[in-house]
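Deliverable D5.2: sample structural annotation.
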Amino acid sequence: MRMRMLPANIRVLYFANHGSEPYVQIINVKESKHRQSITSSTEESEPEETDELRPVLRDDSLLLNDHQLETLANHLPARTQGYPWKLVYSTALHGSSLKTLYRNMADLDSPVLLVIKDVHQKVFGAFSSDPFKVSKYCYGTGETFLYTFNPDFKAYRWTEENSYFVRGHSDALQIGGGGTGIGLWLDADLYRGSSSTCATFDNPPLSTQQDFTIQDIEVWTIQNEWRMN
């Protein structure tokens, strides 16, 4: 019997699980590489920016363009890559209230991405390993980082100087601390904010000025498909 050769860009995957019938799936090489990147070791390395990691948004973003989405996706932890993003809070939809922001995340146990646009059209924010909540103590892990697109993208990761990742107060949200300042601070009305150098992330001010006025905020969560509502 003659064997037909498959094109170079095609891969055949054979699946066999206990208790189920084995099956074959044919995919292209690009998809094969993408799957390998998702299931590979979670050891962090500086990711390459490629179209393969462009996130799928379940909702429209008013603050991030396609390039910014791709850039952020490529800098998130490996465990979040390949999964859809779901909008859990937006000032445009839910009004400007830190209390509402906390309430919308009350049932989450997944990481969140905070996106801020100030009145000078600067976009910046934070990735938090834990959803935002009111807490007496700081919470989060070393996956948490600050970022800015002012003027080019830059991520400010954990320096290991302290563990002041996130602390939610009823009247303010604080990300990063220690030294002489707070990395990112938002008030109860999500109208005023500030950003200064902190020991947690060793970041400069994320906007053009230390104190800024907020135009809009979005918070996204990144979850496995089976955990999405």
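Annotation notes: Confidence is low (pLDDT under 50) at residues 1-6, 32-51, 225-229. The longest strand covers residues 211-222.
The annotation will be released with the project's public dataset once the embargo ends.
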